[in-house]
Amino acid sequence: MADPSSYRPKPGQIPDSPGVYRFRDEHRRVIYVGKAKSLRQRLANYFQDLAGLHPRTRTMVTTAASVEWTVVSTEVEALQLEYSWIKEYDPRFNVKYRDDKSYPYLAVTMNEEFPRVQVMRGHKKKGVRYFGPYAHAWAIRDTVDLLLRVFPVRTCSAGVFKNASRTGRPCLLGYIGKCSAPCVGRISPDDHWELADEFCDFMTGRTGTYLRRLEKQMTEAAEEMEYERAARLRDDIGALKKAMEKNAVVLADATDADLIAVAEDELEAAVQIFHVRGGRVRGQRGWVTDKVEEITTGALVEHALQQLYGEETGDAVPKEVLVPALPDPLEPVQEWLTARRGSNVSLRIPQRGDKRALMETVERNAQQSLVLHKTKRASDLTTRSRALEEIAEALDLDSAPLRIECYDISHLQGDDVVASMVVFEDGLARKSEYRRFEIKGRVGDTQVWHGEGQDDVRSMHEVISRRFRRYLADKERTGEWVDGNPDNPGTSENPGTSENPGATADAPIASSLTEDDGRPKRFAYPPQLVVVDGGQPQVAAAKRALDELGIDDIAVCGLAKRLEEVWLPGDDDPVVLPRTSEGLYLLQRVRDEAHRFAITYQRTKRAKRFRAGPLDDVPGLGDARKQALVKHFGSMKRLRSATIDQICEVPGIGRKTAETILAAFASAAPPAPAVNTATGEIMDEEESGTTSDSPGEPVAAGAPEDRRGQET
């Protein structure tokens, strides 16, 4: 690792003007390319104290051995030169695109005597009409196959065309009516060129004329009793409509635009692009990139624009480009796009209407792309094993943490404070083991505190204490050793319990893991590693909770979201895992899942609180009978003014329930005790989970994804 001060240029040597700079390593390889409005100000940022640099930037400057720059006159020139050098040198610390291939276009060679429809990639050629790009070449072939019934344009290669002309026999497509066979003179060059021009018109969105013309011809054929011709025209119309369905209209004003969306986390970003031409989605493409450097969404958009239009000119750059965030500064990028197109290009963020709705669709695709990428990465057994080994090595654990529990706190300005516990076993989510907690107050306090003084640190202490107090209680009830006393009956060295003296060595252990009905107990299995979402304060709170309970065989760490640093109890400096570390990726995925689960539960509680009404205080009155009451009376106002006899007219409502309903309306009584809906019995505090010692709510095993975080 090089010392940046050894190659740092003097401030007076760096020009205060726009330009592009390159960092090189000791072997003179370019490892990073960047542009700047002021080279002096930008390069000064790299040579500050290493402790103040982002970890990825710090790695870059310590890997580099020299820096050089090129001065240009404008920021637009800097943007163009930066793109050229990134393509030329492929620097390891710049944003890299995993799917950097040339996307296929549907091309019509209008510059030839007999225009040909084909799939083309690479640089655009003069005189060729392009449609797309498409995500896959087979999508182009499917569309062309449908359209050849109506527009039998030539699709064969030059060799096949010459061979057919020489022999006087057309190819198979000519025999089945999907080619007009200009090779053997069945159609003149002018007529074939006009047919290709009609094909292009249809692809640009002018479809109504052809459909009306074919429908008229079909009607005339039927009137003249030419039923075979009418049937063929009917099939042609169906083919055109099917082709139109493949290019569904999404914008009514025949807009030409590209929509770019970005889904990102701290380590990776997914980019999705929808190409809209003539109001139709003509193509889709996307890629996933590592965030090698600290980068904003606007900068990711700028890199995507460079990648997308760096080698494109003319019609390939649309009039309008819609993005989730604007590059900073905006003017150079907009000037560059305008120069690539040859006319003005609008680069903006859609705010409302159809374009905003379509952008949301692109954003969902980007998010799904990122999730799919992470899922594929996490599903690999070798990768998971390597991740667990890296975590064990980084945290100095005796063995790989096969069970990891992660905790997160969620609230809205101190209200509706909840916590989540997610479980990963062998690197995979164990959703049946997820738990959620309603934070009541500081553990040990008799007074429940709400909002004021309530923070993540206290909440983290409470939730860790509640979870592991329940774990210790389960161990004590099942005869395992308690309070550090291995001589207590029930251990493997001393099998059997006072309740079951004839039990074998395995019996107490088995009984500790299951309830009477055979299901696993809620907190029967301890983790090897507890991860908390946060830095030093949250880690210290979790460790303090475990120490107070006498638990010293469970490792604790925290993952700070801003810089993805791993914090250990008692350490002043974090553990910084390499950016490419599979262990860091697994910890990040565990933390993100805990955050998702917590915020889902918090939003559910908040929404339920907003929807609360007097009927919620009536014990035993479920959703079905609530809806029946509102439907019968038409409104809550009429129900409030109803008599007991009138309420009893509602099916399923007895006189006692009616009296309770009126009493709930008449007074602001505190919430009624929780009722077991299966038995009708009032549950005590431990069963209902309303005390501060409540261990948390389980999520039903196998519950669908969209229901987790709702009331169970």
UniProtKB/TrEMBL annotation:
Give the UniProt keywords, A-Z.
Cytoplasm, DNA damage, DNA excision, DNA repair, Excision nuclease, Hydrolase, SOS response
- Gene3D superfamilies to which the protein is assigned, alphabetical: 5' to 3' exonuclease, C-terminal subdomain (1.10.150.20), GIY-YIG endonuclease (3.40.1440.10), UVR domain (4.10.860.10), UvrC, RNAse H endonuclease domain (3.30.420.340)
Highest taxon above the source species: Bacteria
Give this protein's Gene Ontology molecular function annotations: hydrolase activity
Report any Pfam family annotated for this entry: GIY-YIG
Q: Which family does it belong to?
A: Belongs to the UvrC family.
Stated role: The UvrABC repair system catalyzes the recognition and processing of DNA lesions. UvrC both incises the 5' and 3' sides of the lesion. The N-terminal half is responsible for the 3' incision and the C-terminal half is responsible for the 5' incision.
Q: Where is the UvrC family homology region profile domain?
A: 259-546
Q: Cite the InterPro entries for this sequence.
A: GIY-YIG_endonuc, GIY-YIG_endonuc_sf, GIY-YIG_UvrC_Cho, Hlx-hairpin-Hlx_DNA-bd_motif, RuvA_2-like, UVR_dom, UVR_dom_sf, UvrABC_protein_C
Biological source species: Streptomyces bobili
Which PANTHER family does the UniProt record give? UVRABC SYSTEM PROTEIN C, UVRC/OXIDOREDUCTASE
What are the residue boundaries of the UVR domain, all occurrences included? 208-243
Q: Where is this region: Disordered?
A: 479-520, 673-712
Every copy of the GIY-YIG domain together lies at 16-95
Kindly report the protein's main subcellular placement as a broad class.
cytoplasm
Q: Where in the cell is it found?
A: Cytoplasm
Q: Where is the composition biased (Polar residues)?
A: 488-501
Assembly state and interactors?
A: Interacts with UvrB in an incision complex.
- The molecule here is called UvrABC system protein C
